[in-house]
Design a protein that fits this description.
About 40% of the residues lie in helices and about 20% in strands. With about 400 residues, it is of the alpha/beta class. The chain starts with a strand and ends with a strand. It holds the Pfam family Thiolase_N.
């Protein structure tokens, strides 16, 4: 018998530069998750997956999943484990929870993710970033931190397709406007095109506002098999219709093209196939806008516009409310911030709310939503498609 999987609750802590520990953020996120669905009892949750990239280095904590289980009042009996795939840890954990429920190994699983990244020893997070690249090649070439890598991507896209700095800035202006209406986001104020264009240069052509921040915070969702989900919520069910995940060429020397992300295209095609939809069917999308150029390329490689047309696509507002596919309606990484293990889960929460019809900024009639998460040297990508109905 086919086992359909639903998202029945979701919540997040306040994201930003926070006092407090990783424990505090997980507890805040779990409480927000329980508050989102008062019918949900922690005793009904039989599994827990915890997504965190840097818990050892910035929180000096291993054995995280059993500890989080105690923090949030869950007693796992089907699965209790940590998932790590750097920036895509959260979405990878959701995919694994989905597979466990789909296969019958679990029925109700909480997926929680987050980080404590602001520490007195600020270099700790950068050492961890360096540890995510291939030491023998990219580390020795100085390519260990994201801004230089994505600056090269932006330069190549500009050279190859005529993308302009104004196109990059349009993404930042949109996402900061969206985050200004999201009380949980790191940035609560919008920015103007002039502010973005004249922002402090980080790595040319990327200014301060073209780059997402690192963040303290956590998020949590609960997935359940459909039969139990119907009895555990009085809100509209949101189904996971399809998933895709791919990793190609994590070492820069093996990347054939900096402006076409093959792993993203593979993951997207797989998710579309399983969900039985096409790009034109997506009503709302959350993509991994770690840098403004990222959202532009993601519009192309997810199939929302033709290759090379991402710049004009965003400048024309086609990724905004009223456009072809409203994207990062809660502010994305540029506005909400980026506690690595929490980002993919935040994306799922926003899509869940959009499809339930109770988002802060609602896309009218949204019925199918997509999330995209990436990690590493633009190498590993996840795509999930959610719907108000099963595939």
């Amino acid at each position: 018998m086919e086992r359909n999987v639903c998202v029945i609750a979701g919540g997040m802590s306040k994201w930003g530069v926070r006092d407090g520990s990783q424990r505090d953020f997980f507890q805040e996120a779990a409480k927000a998750c329980y508050d989102d669905n008062p019918l949900l009892n922690p005793k009904d949750i039989d599994g827990l997956l915890v997504a965190s990239a840097y818990t050892e280095r910035t929180s000096y904590q291993t054995h995280l999943a059993p500890l989080v289980a105690e923090y949030v009042g869950v007693k796992p009996r089907s699965v209790c484990a940590r998932v790590e795939l750097l920036c895509a840890s959260g979405s990878s954990a959701i995919i694994l929870a989905f597979a466990l429920i789909k296969s019958g190994q679990a029925d109700v699983v909480m997926v929680a993710g987050g980080e404590k990244l602001y520490t007195p020893q600020k270099w700790e997070v950068f050492y961890s970033e360096l540890a995510s690249v291939d030491h023998d090649w990219d580390g020795s070439q100085g390519l260990g931190l994201p801004p230089p890598a994505f600056a090269m991507v932006a330069k190549q896209h500009m050279k190859q397709y005529g993308t302009k700095k104004e196109h990059l800035a349009a993404v930042s202006v949109k996402n900061r406007r969206n985050s200004s209406k999201n009380p949980k986001a790191q940035f609560q104020t919008p920015v103007t095109m002039e502010e973005v264009m004249n922002g402090r240069m980080i790595v040319a052509p990327l200014t301060l506002y073209d780059c997402c921040p690192i963040t303290d915070g956590a998020a949590a969702v609960v997935l359940a098999v459909e039969e139990k989900a119907k009895a555990m919520t009085d809100k509209p069910l949101v189904y996971i219709r399809g998933t895709g995940q791919a990793s190609v060429n994590n070492m820069s020397a093996n990347m054939p093209n900096w402006t076409t992300w093959e792993a993203l295209k593979i993951a997207a095609q797989e998710a579309y196939r399983k969900a039985k939809v096409e790009p034109k069917d997506i009503d709302v999308a959350m993509t991994h806008d770690c840098f403004t150029i990222s959202e532009i390329i993601e519009m192309e490689d997810l199939g929302f516009c033709k290759k090379g047309e991402g710049g004009p696509f965003v400048a024309d507002g086609q990724n905004d409310f009223g456009g072809t596919v409203p994207t990062n309606t809660d502010g994305g990484l540029l506005g909400c911030g980026h506690p690595f293990g929490g980002t993919g889960i935040r994306q799922a929460i926003e899509v869940m709310r959009q499809l339930r019809g109770d988002a802060i900024q609602q896309v009218p009639g949204a019925a199918i939503g997509l999330t995209h998460n990436l990690s590493g040297f633009i190498a590993a990508h996840t795509v999930l498609i959610y719907g108000k109905e099963v595939a």
